[in-house]
Amino acid sequence: MFGVLFPSRSFPMDASSFTQMDTTHWVLDMNYFVGEAYDQVKEICIFLLNEFSLPPDKALAVYVQSPGSPFQYCGAVQRACPSAVLPLLWPNPGSGQMQIMAPNSNPLTAKIGLSVEDVISLPSLNVGQQHRVEALALKVGENLFNFMQSFCTVDANKLVVPMDILDRWFKKFQDKTKRDPDYIRNFLL
Hints:
elongated, 5-stranded antiparallel sheet, 11 strands
């Protein structure tokens, strides 16, 4: 029905690499696959093996689960979009996020879950990309705040910064990205 590949980490694997829980759910134990370094696996390439893998109104949803946390949705593939590279945004271990896939489950290992679901019931096929953009924006904002804070003075409970602070920060940010093409990508690591 499907295949997966972890870029720079694995050869293509089919459904037989997963434990099939029932006719519509599969789980891959990441601790068995990569040990405790599961959070270093940042992406999954998932693909349907043929056009008959799923009915047109169904999708194969991808979820991740850190030890002690519930499953978190990453994205999906369907007949209209039969393959995707999805970012794996692992929840913090033991985090109290909303339960999505397996209620009353607090695993001791990290897992990737796959589930056949109705396309219309899924939040978005690009939710992982949206989370990645939000995380990047947060890190860039944090970088700006830290830069501005080093030039601040306090005047009557107000922070005062030089007028050209944004220009100076942006120039420094551009210089770093020109010198190191992975600079922005490292914000997400």
